Amino acid sequence: MNESPARRKLLGILSGTWVAQGVYALVKLGVPDLMADGPVHVGQLAHACGADARALGRLLRALALLGLFTEPAPDTYGLTSTTELLRADVPGSVRLNALMQGDEVFRSFAEIVHTLRTGRPAFEAVYGRPFYDYLGDNPEAAAVFNESMGDQRPPAALTGCDLGWAGTVVDVGGGNGSLLIDVLTRFPQLRGVLMELPDAADAARARLAEAGLAERAECVAGSFFDGVPAGGDAYVLARVLHNWNDDNAVAVLRRVHAVLPPHGRVIVLEDFLPERGEPAPGRSAAGLVDLLMLVTQEGHDRTGSEYRELLVKAGFEVVEARAGALEARAA
User: Fold this and answer.
1) Which of 4, 68, 203, 218 is the most exposed place for a label (fewest CB within 10 A)?
2) Whole-angstrom Cα distance, residue 287 to residue 15?
3) 104-151 per-position pLDDT tens digit
């Protein structure tokens, strides 16, 4: 019997986790970094990373047959242009993302039925506490998460934000400083304040210093649920609100509202879901990110209208809306 294209496609989807976890395992063992100078015999790789040579060879052979690795000689494997990005020392590396996806994310998706039955993140059932509490108790996992998130490019909508009028911009939940570095580089008149939890604030401080911006930037350690730094003209929340349920998202916005001066603005940058019933060609990635949120955290992605509603509930008036960005002032 000939296999239908639909059946082949579905079987490919169902086996996708095999490939992803195989790649994760190689990254966990440091195999891609061992191939940095070219193809290496599997025996040498196994000795260097502490693996069983036969098992490692079978995994590499399977992934080579999929085109993810080369096999220029028997039992000798090398990187392709794709798997080069699994190395730690290359621009655009996805190594940290592979580690996070293979550990906490994979285990959470394995329990997605729990989420569907209870409405609660599967992460909590697996790890016994909410996502950010877990990170607070696990510095290594927190470092992987913070660096992985920091490796993301600033939201594209940021380029449409004119901050030439402002004196100080406050990046609330600013990760390791990537967005603030971009803003301070583009607007040399600005000073910046970044607020994050202590470990992330330390990483941001180091990164801002490396970028030569230490004299124009301050990093404040703390929780934005307790309050945000006063003295800003523009307050940026980039990919922050989608981490929280509606009540907590409004609570964060109200902390900003409490310190926003009359001339100030809050800028919300998120990957908006399509409005209900709106055609969404090429927007499948947005839905996948919301699935990630579904199993790991209490928050969820939203449409632009839904983010606007959160701002209004927190006491703001939206004055400018663009794809992926809402700018508001105190109502």
Assistant:
1) 4
2) 20
3) 999 999 999 999 999 999 999 999 999 989 988 988 888 888 777 766
pLDDT score at 149: 72
Class of domain 154-279+293-330: alpha beta
Q: Do residues 167 and 189 lie in contact, with contact meaning Cβ atoms separated by under 8 Å?
A: yes
Set 41, 114, 242, 300: catalytic member? 242
**Residues whose CB is less than 8 angstroms from the CB of residue 154 and which lie 6 or more positions away in sequence, other chains included:** 178, 179, 182, 238
Which residue pairs from 287-290 have beta carbons closer than 8 angstroms and sit at least 24 positions apart in sequence? none
Picking from 67, 17, 72, 25, the residue whose alpha carbon sits closest to that of residue 49 is 25
**Is residue 280 scored above 90 in pLDDT?**
no
From residue 24, alpha-carbon distances to 87, 190, 297 in Å are 12, 41, 22
Largest interatomic CA distance in the chain: 72
- Phi-psi sector, 282: left (phi>0), alpha (psi -120 to 50), beta: left
CATH code of the domain occupying 95-149: 1.10.287.1350
Give the integer Cα–Cα distance in Å for 140 and 154. 24
* pLDDT at residue 321 tops 90: yes
Kindly report the CATH number that applies to the domain delimited by 5-86: 1.10.10.10
Specify the pTM: 0.86
Annotated active-site residue 242? The verdict is: yes
3-state helix/strand/coil string of 216-280: HEEEEECCCCCCCCCCCCEEEEECCHHHCCHHHHHHHHHHHHHHCCCCCEEEEECCCECCCCCCC
